[in-house]
User: Which sequence fits this backbone?
C-alpha cells in the first residue's frame, strides 16, 4: 500500500491535474505581463501602479499566487522525493526530505502572504 | 550439428538450467531493485530537457523572492520605482534578470510540450526525442531574443 502523505492532494492524479491547471494560469499571467511590459517601453510609475491597482489585475494576480503555490509545492515535492532518497543520502534521507519540504512549504507560504500584501496593499 | 547435440547436451546442462531457473524465480519474487542511479546511466536528449525543466523550476522557486522584492519596491512609491529602474541598468542586475527570465522561458516552453504530450501528441520514442529538440531550439531562440531586449 502506498503510504505517501506529503504530496499535495494525497492523489497522484489530482497532483498531476493541479500541476497542469496551475501551469496554464501561470503561463497566461507571465505572457500577459511580459507582453504588457514589452508593448509599453519606458513605462512610468503612474502607469505601472495603475496596472496593478486595477481590480481585474488584482484578481488575476491573486489567482496566479494560488496557482503558483500549488505548482511550486507539487514541483518541489516531486524533486525532493526523487533525489533526497536513501540511495543518495543514506539513513537520514527521510529527515532531510521532511525538513526540505517543510522549508519549501514555509517559503511558499511566505511568498503567498507577501504577494497578497504587494497586490492588495499597494 | 546433428540431433545428437541437444540430447547429449541436456543431461550435462540440466542441473545448471534448474539452478538458473530457480535464480530467475527468486529474482522475480524478491522486490528486486532496479538501477535508477542517474549518475551511472547515459542520458538521452529527453532526459536533458527533463532535468533542465526541473533545474529551471528550482531556480524560479528561489527567484520568486527576487521578483517579489522588485515588484514590491516598484509599486510602493515613485522613488521605489525609480530605484528599481536605476538598479536594472547595472550589468549584474541585467544578468540576474536575464537568468531568471531564461529559466522562466525554458520552463514555460518545456511545460507547453508537456501539455501537448498530455494530448497524446509526440508520445513515441521518436516523437519524444523530436519534441525535446524542438524545446531546446525554441527556448534558445526566445532566451536570445530576451537577452537582446534586456541589453
Assistant:
Amino acid at each position: 500500500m502506498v503510504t505517501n502523505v506529503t504530496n499535495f492532494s494525497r492523489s497522484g492524479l489530482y497532483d498531476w491535474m493541479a500541476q497542469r491547471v496551475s501551469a496554464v494560469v501561470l503561463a497566461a499571467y507571465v505572457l500577459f505581463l511580459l507582453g504588457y511590459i514589452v508593448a509599453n517601453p519606458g513605462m512610468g510609475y503612474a502607469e505601472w501602479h495603475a496596472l496593478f491597482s486595477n481590480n481585474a489585475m488584482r484578481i488575476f494576480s491573486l489567482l496566479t499566487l494560488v496557482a503558483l503555490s500549488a505548482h511550486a509545492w507539487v514541483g518541489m515535492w516531486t524533486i525532493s522525493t526523487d533525489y533526497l532518497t536513501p540511495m543518495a543520502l543514506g539513513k537520514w534521507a527521510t529527515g532531510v526530505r521532511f525538513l526540505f519540504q517543510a522549508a519549501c512549504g514555509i517559503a511558499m507560504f511566505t511568498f503567498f502572504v507577501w504577494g497578497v500584501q504587494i497586490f492588495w496593499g499597494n | 550439428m546433428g540431433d545428437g547435440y541437444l540430447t547429449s547436451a541436456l543431461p550435462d546442462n540440466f542441473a545448471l538450467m534448474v539452478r538458473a531457473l530457480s535464480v530467475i524465480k527468486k529474482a522475480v519474487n524478491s522486490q528486486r531493485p532496479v538501477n535508477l542511479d542517474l549518475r551511472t546511466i547515459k542520458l538521452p536528449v529527453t532526459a536533458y530537457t527533463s532535468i533542465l525543466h526541473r533545474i529551471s523550476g528550482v531556480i524560479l522557486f528561489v527567484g520568486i523572492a527576487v521578483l517579489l522584492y522588485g515588484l514590491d519596491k516598484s509599486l510602493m512609491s515613485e522613488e521605489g520605482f525609480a530605484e528599481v529602474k536605476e538598479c536594472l541598468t547595472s550589468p549584474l542586475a541585467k544578468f540576474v534578470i536575464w537568468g531568471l527570465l531564461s529559466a522562466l522561458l525554458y520552463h514555460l516552453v518545456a511545460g507547453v510540450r508537456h501539455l501537448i504530450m498530455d494530448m497524446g501528441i509526440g508520445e513515441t520514442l521518436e516523437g519524444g526525442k523530436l519534441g525535446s529538440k524542438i524545446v531546446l531550439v525554441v527556448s534558445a531562440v526566445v532566451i536570445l531574443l530576451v537577452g537582446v531586449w534586456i541589453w
